[in-house]
Design goal:
This protein has 205 residues and is of the alpha+beta class. It has one domain (2-204): Alpha-Beta Barrel (Multidrug-efflux Transporter 1 Regulator Bmrr, Chain A). The protein is built from three helices and nine strands, in the order αβββαββββαββ. The longest helix is centred in the C-terminal third of the chain and has 17 residues, at 156-172.
Length: 205
């Protein structure tokens, strides 16, 4: 499985290199505010291929990646290959419990979700439907997000620590987070760690 994932990753990031050079299409956004490694951004509508896997981070990442890679490789209703874009998005999914005074959302994580951002050409038309029942194509409505960018390896531990850092900055800016933070990775495993682009984001209002 690890060898298979490495092959998948090599194909996925064929536009990337050990030096962090990216030639694949990246998800576009408008920069509203920047302060060091902290951004506030506006995203427009876009499509993703979405799947979720129960289990621990590393195992679920491998399984989810394989499902989504098969979809863009032709396991879809049109049997077409779909160009990969960046970043790959991950977050923990689970039950949302609404609370009042003020309204707060708490997420009890039971599943890791992974999403491949689909090429912008599908903003004008719907992407092909997946043949795998565990994969869905989902249109994301435009949103404003706070983000922090960091280098190094993308891991569950790093995501957890950066999530705390991000939410603290969001609080300092007097922004209201909506939903759970999510991670975005732009580079393959063999990219030199300090040249990798990783992010943690949260939708805000």
């Amino acid at each position: 499985m690890k060898k298979l994932l490495l092959v998948f990753t090599a194909l996925l990031f064929q536009g990337c290199s050990v030096f962090g050079i990216r030639t694949v299409e990246l998800l576009d956004y408008t920069l509203i505010e920047k302060e060091g490694n902290f951004d506030i951004r506006q995203y427009q509508d876009y499509w993703v291929a979405h799947t979720g896997v129960e289990g621990e981070y590393k195992k679920s990442t491998s399984e989810a990646f394989g499902r989504l890679f098969r979809y863009i490789s032709g396991n879809n209703s049109q049997q077409v290959k779909i160009a990969m874009t960046g970043p790959v998005i991950q977050q923990r999914e689970g039950e949302k419990i609404a609370m009042t005074g003020p309204v707060i959302q708490q997420k009890i994580g039971t599943k890791w979700v992974m999403e491949f951002v689909l090429p912008s050409k599908y903003n004008e038309s719907s992407p092909p439907e997946p043949l795998d029942s565990e994969v869905r194509v989902v249109k994301k409505n435009g949103y404003k997000a706070a983000a922090i960018r960091y280098s190094g390896n993308l891991s569950e531990e790093k995501f957890s620590s950066k999530k705390i850092e991000l939410l603290d900055l969001v609080n300092q800016k007097k922004l209201q987070p909506i939903g759970e933070p999510f991670s975005a990775g732009y580079d393959p495993p063999w990219t030199i760690p300090f040249l990798k682009r990783n992010e943690v984001l949260v939708v805000v209002e």
